[in-house]
Each structure stands twice: as C-alpha cells, then as structure tokens.
TrEMBL record:
<feature type="transmembrane region" description="Helical">
    <location>
        <begin position="195"/>
        <end position="214"/>
    </location>
</feature>
<feature type="transmembrane region" description="Helical">
    <location>
        <begin position="80"/>
        <end position="97"/>
    </location>
</feature>
<feature type="transmembrane region" description="Helical">
    <location>
        <begin position="339"/>
        <end position="357"/>
    </location>
</feature>
<dbReference type="InterPro" id="IPR050367">
    <property type="entry name" value="APC_superfamily"/>
</dbReference>
<dbReference type="GO" id="GO:0055085">
    <property type="term" value="P:transmembrane transport"/>
</dbReference>
<keyword id="KW-1133">Transmembrane helix</keyword>
<feature type="transmembrane region" description="Helical">
    <location>
        <begin position="158"/>
        <end position="183"/>
    </location>
</feature>
<feature type="transmembrane region" description="Helical">
    <location>
        <begin position="279"/>
        <end position="302"/>
    </location>
</feature>
<feature type="transmembrane region" description="Helical">
    <location>
        <begin position="128"/>
        <end position="151"/>
    </location>
</feature>
<feature type="transmembrane region" description="Helical">
    <location>
        <begin position="104"/>
        <end position="122"/>
    </location>
</feature>
<feature type="transmembrane region" description="Helical">
    <location>
        <begin position="235"/>
        <end position="259"/>
    </location>
</feature>
<feature type="transmembrane region" description="Helical">
    <location>
        <begin position="363"/>
        <end position="389"/>
    </location>
</feature>
<feature type="domain" description="Amino acid permease/ SLC12A">
    <location>
        <begin position="19"/>
        <end position="466"/>
    </location>
</feature>
<keyword id="KW-0472">Membrane</keyword>
<feature type="transmembrane region" description="Helical">
    <location>
        <begin position="401"/>
        <end position="423"/>
    </location>
</feature>
<protein>
    <recommendedName>
        <fullName>Amino acid permease/ SLC12A domain-containing protein</fullName>
    </recommendedName>
</protein>
<keyword id="KW-0812">Transmembrane</keyword>
Length: 486
C-alpha cells in the first residue's frame, strides 16, 4: 500500500500562486456568467439583479471562510469532501455526492451546454441547423479532457493568461458602459421594495452559481507550491477579482438594457452581446463574443481538473469509487482515469438533458441540481470545520463558530427560496420544463441527504477502515523531510 501511494500521486510543486488564483477564476467563468447565468438572475430579480449579484458575492465570501481556514490545516486534493470528513466521517459521502451534483453534473452543463447554447442562439442561421449544438458540445468536452490530460501546469498557464485579460475586459468595459449611461445611472436598483425581496432571493440563487468555483483551488492543494500559504491567498485574490468582473457588468447590463423593459432581458438571445454592441460598438460585441467562448473553454478545463482530483482523492481513500480510479499518468501525473469518469458522466448527462429539453433548458435543469448541491457542499464543510477545530483545540469563536454557522443559515434560506420558487412556478405555470425543474430540485435534496447519509451509515458498519481514511491524506506530511525545497 505504501508503494502504491508513492507511485500514484499528483505532481507536487507544479504550479504557483497565480495558477491557483486562475484555477478559481476560470471555474467562476465571469464572461460565461455574463452570457448565461445573469439571464437567470434577471428573470427573477429584474431591475434589482445587481443587488442580487452583490449579496450573492458577499454570501459566497462568507462561504470561503471554511476553505480558507481548512487550507492552513490540510493539503488534500479532495477539497470539501476531505475537509468535511476531517470533522466527521459521516459527512464524507454526503459531501462527495453534493460534489457530484455541483461539479460532475452542473459543471459540464455550464461549460458544455453553455458554450453550445451561446453559439446556438447567437444567429438564426446557426439555430436552424438541427442538432448543431451537439457538435459544439462535443468539441468543448474533448477540449477540456485533452488540455487537462496534458498536465496541471499546462492547463492553468492557459487559464492565467486568458483569465487576466477576461477580468480586465469585463470590468473596464462595464465602467465604460456606465459612463456612457450618464443620467440613466441610478441607485434605486439597490433598494427594492419589500414585496420584491422573495424574487431577489430567487435571483440570488442563480447569482450564487455565478461565483461557484471560487474555492476550487483547494483541489490543486497537492500540486501547488506552499499549499498551506498559497491556497488561502488564491481564494482571497480570486474573490476580489470576480467581484470586479461580475458586479459591475450586472449593473451595467440591467441599467443599460432599460429598467422599464427589463422583463424582456431574460427572453432575449444573448442580451449581454446586445448591450456591449449597443454601447461599445462592433468592437465591444466581437471582444465579448471571443471572451465568452474562451471563458467556457477555460471553465471546462478548470471543471475537469476539479472533478478528476476529488474523485482521485476518494478512490485513494477507497470511498465509493473502486481503486482502479486511483491512478496517475506515469509522465504527466494527471489522474487520467478519473478524467475519463468526468468525461463519461459529464458529457453523457449534458447530452441526454440537451436532447430531451434542448441545450439551454437542459443546462437550466442540471444547473438547478448544481445550485442546490453547492449549498449542501458548503454546509457540510462548515459543519466539518467547526467540529474539527474543536477536536484540535484550535477553536476560534468567530472563524470556526460564528462565520460557518451564519453562512450555513444563509445557505438554508437560499435553499428555501429556491424550492419555494420551483414549487410555485410548477403550480402557476404547469409545463414539462417546470415539472422537470421541480423534480431536479427534489432529487438534488434527496441525493446527499437520503442517499448520502444512508451510504455513510453502511460504510460505518461494513467498511469502517475505508471511511476512517477519508480526508486524512496530507501531501505536506508526506514531503515533510523535503520542506526546505519550499
């Protein structure tokens, strides 16, 4: 077993701080959010979408306390699965299943179907070609697999160079639009009447998805230099940069569209392109198109990195996945078998949902599952942090108690409004899509709670030795004698 651990390991010290920052930012995919997820926010929050995005950013900032604190204690590619397991082993499988909802289903849906939907709807001539979106989807899936297969440094170097250009473009272009709006600028979009608040909360659910991925740098903990230092720094810098890249566009696009006509925003194909073209001309239109396309491609690389490493960690522990998946390429040190798992499940689910509901609605279905999965993922990790800090006699009331508890409560509130919205929409506007979205929401709750905890109990009784290993691996403990290399 010892020999196997040394043979199958990820490439330590392969990447640095900037790579870590843009692993997270690429997974957030700011330009892709502007193209697709902001549409979901505006569909509910309307004129107050910038407020929904701002609140979601602050809530996600609270959620980042847990990976920030844990990153100083453990360097494990399993991410939240590993972190929650350190608090209580019974949380390991529910957290892993939450990850499958968020990253293995929702992630490919956003990257693969998001890219396909964007170009599918961009021109009537493209839309008229039957099933052309499948070609787009296949290209993105293959691209993500190949670049991630080449190695963590290769994939994240690409993410760094293109990501910094994307963040600067979105922020500066939005500022230019705001200046061009002149007297149309208003603070009323940040002060909704009380009766609108439930809709703002629903819009915030999609806005929370805008920031999903901020903490994914934790999954490269075994490959980044000085992980206990650079993971936390990556989270902070990524948080600030994504706020710049998303809050400003949310305001610029909604006010630029026209608050009186905001109801038509969500039903328009690619409204972001329309606004950028209107205020910044053909150059703005073309540049946003390029950055959106690249954003989806960068995202799918980041997503494949995340899923493959979490699955690699779980298979190393012997939890849920067979040991066959515990393998890295002899030369590139990439977890190639779990990359194959990502490709099969991720592309398969997006293809099926896209064929049944169409690429846009198919993505919406899987992103509904993803949105609920990410809430559970953070709640379980928050609980794990509080318990683990108590166990280690390192408990700080604010960092390990107040912040995790408050952020978990906020997660429950968002979950409540999410389900309330899905139920009310299915009742008031009965349709196959709305019933499917409600079913997706119910599934997303039962998968980690009913199935996850049942499997945890089973493992505790039948395979306690496997569950005992969950999350315990720490790359820095293995390399402790070589610490001078840092």
């Amino acid at each position: 077993m010892k020999k196997q651990i040394q043979e199958y390991k990820l490439k330590h010290n392969a990447v640095g701080l900037m790579h870590g920052i843009f692993q997270s930012i690429s997974h957030v995919s700011p330009a892709g959010d502007v193209a697709i997820l902001l549409t979901g926010t505006v569909a509910y929050a309307g004129a107050y979408s910038a407020l929904a995005v701002l609140i979601a950013w602050l809530i996600y900032g609270m959620w980042m306390n847990t990976p920030y604190q844990f990153s100083k204690l453990r360097s494990n590619a399993g991410g939240y699965y590993a972190y929650a397991s350190l608090g209580s082993k019974i949380l390991s499988i529910p957290t892993f299943l939450s990850y499958t909802e968020n990253e293995m289903l929702g992630g490919p849906a956003f990257g693969i179907l998001g890219f396909a939907s964007f170009f599918y709807l961009i021109s009537p001539s493209i839309t008229a070609i039957p099933y052309i979106w499948i070609a787009f989807a296949s290209f993105v899936a293959a691209y993500g697999f190949i670049i991630s297969y080449l190695g963590i440094k290769e994939s994240l170097s690409y993410a760094f160079y293109t990501g910094i250009a994307e963040v600067l473009f979105l922020g500066l272009a939005s500022i230019a639009i705001i200046f061009r709006l002149g007297s149309l600028n208003t603070f009323t979009v940040f002060s909704p009447p009380t009766y609108i608040l439930p809709l703002v909360f629903l819009g915030m659910v999609f806005s929370i998805l805008d920031f999903t991925g901020l903490g994914t740098v934790i999954t490269v903990s075994e490959e980044i230099k000085e992980p206990k230092k650079n993971i936390g720094r990556s989270i902070i810098y990524a948080f600030l940069l994504t706020g710049f890249a998303l809050i400003l566009p949310a305001y610029a696009l909604t006010v630029g569209w026209g608050l009186g006509n905001i109801s038509t925003f969500a039903t328009s194909p690619d409204p972001g392109l329309i606004i950028f073209g209107k205020y910044l001309g053909i150059i703005g239109f073309i540049l946003l198109t390029i950055f959106v396309a690249n954003s989806y491609l960068s995202f799918i690389i980041a997503n494949s990195n995340v899923v493959s490493r979490i699955a690699f960690s779980a298979s190393r522990d012997g939890v849920l996945l067979p040991k066959w998946f515990y393998y890295t390429h002899p030369k590139r040190k990439t977890p190639v078998r779990t990359l194959m798992l990502w490709l099969g499940v991720g592309f398969g689910s997006t293809l099926i949902s896209g064929l049944v509901l169409g690429p846009f609605n198919g993505a919406l279905l899987l992103l509904t599952i993803s949105g609920i999965g990410v809430i559970f993922e953070h709640i379980f990790a928050n609980i794990g942090l509080t318990i683990f800090a108590k166990k280690q006699d390192q408990f700080d009331v604010f960092k390990h108690g107040f912040v995790p508890i408050v952020s978990s409560i906020l997660g429950v509130v968002v979950l409540y409004y999410s389900m309330q919205g899905l139920i009310s929409t299915a009742i008031s506007s009965p349709s196959l899509l709305n019933y499917a979205l409600l079913g997706a929401g119910i599934f997303a709750i039962l998968w980690p709670l009913a199935v996850g905890f049942s499997l945890s109990v089973y493992y505790m009784k039948k395979h306690p030795e496997k569950l005992a290993k969950a999350g315990e691996y720490d790359i820095e403990m293995e390399l402790k004698p070589q610490s001078k290399e840092y």
